[in-house]
Amino acid sequence: MAPTNRGISLKQVSLIFACGTALFSDGYANNIIGSVNTLLKRIYGTEQVATRYSNTLSSVAFAGTIVGMLVFGYVSDRVSRKFGMMLATGIVALFSGLSAASSGAHHSVRGMLDMLCAMRFFLGIGVGAEYPCGSVAASEQSEEPGISKNAQHRWFALATNSMIDVGFVVSAFVPLVLYWIFGEHHLRAVFRISLGLGIIPAVLVFIWRLNMEEPTRFKRDSMKRTKTPYLLIIRRYWSQFLGICITWFIYDFIVYPFGLFSSTVVDNITNNSTSLSVVFGWNVVINLFYIPGTIGGAFVVDYLGPKYTQITGLLCQAVIGFIMSGLYEQLTSHIAAFAVVYGIFLSFGELGPGNCLGMLAAKTGPTAVRGQFYGIAAAVGKVGAFIGTWVWQDIVDDFGGSSSKRGNTGPFWIASGLAVLSALVTFFLVKPISHDGMEEEDRQFRLYLEAHGFDTSLMGLEDEGTPTIDSGDVKHPASIDEKAAA
């Protein structure tokens, strides 16, 4: 067992960020479309940008993301973590540029919107690929020598979910700055440059990754050279996998529609102001509340453990949501108070499931199928996001519409109830994970396979050889989560 005081290597920390930072593109690409929708309606009118196009633009990237997660989960495990990451960033850079260049035949608005929808789908594939390739590699790099044992979860959270949230904030700020530069009469430049700037982080990360090697754990425990015993894997991990899938579905069902719902919140705050600088400015303020949640959670998770940090965040979010529902009239009469409480609601979502779901998905399963384990769980989450973006407005309408009290409080009742359900699922189905837990899990997994007659001699890449594993009693390190629960 590695000592708890092993030092921090800046080079090793930089490798974690090289793997995870491309998730900035996920936050940027998914959040920028809300502002782009606003700009398109302002440029072409609500009749041209009908509800069908508006919803499609908001959700089509999720469909591509699901495809990317599933396909590249397999690529990550069976081909190479690095190959998957490099291809993912290339796709993101290419289709960010093509999204910005969208144009219809004979300058048709419908043609332009159709092309933009298509490019958003392919962009989503690249974004989705980053999850099972980049995040998984980041999790494996977080347990390499040179990373302080008591900061493994922190660095992973900062390199992955925090990057998504920074993408949220930047995507809210960029249209505002561009609007200040170009003004009301050049909104086409604002929306196209907003989309096109997604190229820059993708290219920078691509260059950063060029000299990376495969994670040591992948070299040692990959099943690239042998068949994957899926039935044995399902038998061992099904309950934990199910718990992570359910909680990720619920989280994305809440968080992504609430990102769109924030426009309704902004309308209420600004009394339906038509000033883009006011609307975009408040959008920046709301998105900034993601940051204290994810950064604060990153410094908590090594002490409580991912499982109990997630439960804490979910229950706190539920309490805030119930308060907002019950005291809606009092809060909305004090706009600053309403904005702060709404921001705290979002922050707890990032402190808990935002930071911890990817960590649990990446560190629960064995290295041999970590990409597929993570990719499928994340894809289930994006299905929740896809469904949520399509049904959320119907939910608001069923409560009485966005102009009514019930229409504004109903979503918070639903989100809070789902947060409680998610906390219960996490408590009963998801196991605690410890520091250096992936190393122990891989060792236990090999012993499990051997006990069921599976030949593990071909595991690992050819030039790494096969590690010798003591088949005697394997000591289980005390779980941080178990200590926290005691």
TrEMBL record:
Pfam families reported in the protein's UniProt record: MFS_1
Ranges of residues in domain Major facilitator superfamily (MFS) profile: 15-434
Segments for region (Disordered): 465-486
Coiled coil: none
Compartments it resides in: Membrane
Single GO MF annotation: carboxylic acid transmembrane transporter activity
GO cellular component: plasma membrane
Residues spanning the signal sequence: 1-29
Keyword flag Transferase: no
Domain of life (superkingdom): Eukaryota
Membrane topology: Multi-pass membrane protein
Keywords: Membrane, Signal, Transmembrane, Transmembrane helix, Transport
InterPro entries: MFS, MFS_dom, MFS_trans_sf
Parts of the chain that traverse the membrane: 53-76, 83-101, 155-183, 189-210, 237-259, 279-301, 334-352, 373-392, 412-430
Biased composition (Basic and acidic residues): 472-486
Annotated PANTHER family: CARBOXYLIC ACID TRANSPORTER PROTEIN HOMOLOG
Name of the protein in its database record: MFS Git1p glycerophosphoinositol and glycerophosphocholine permease
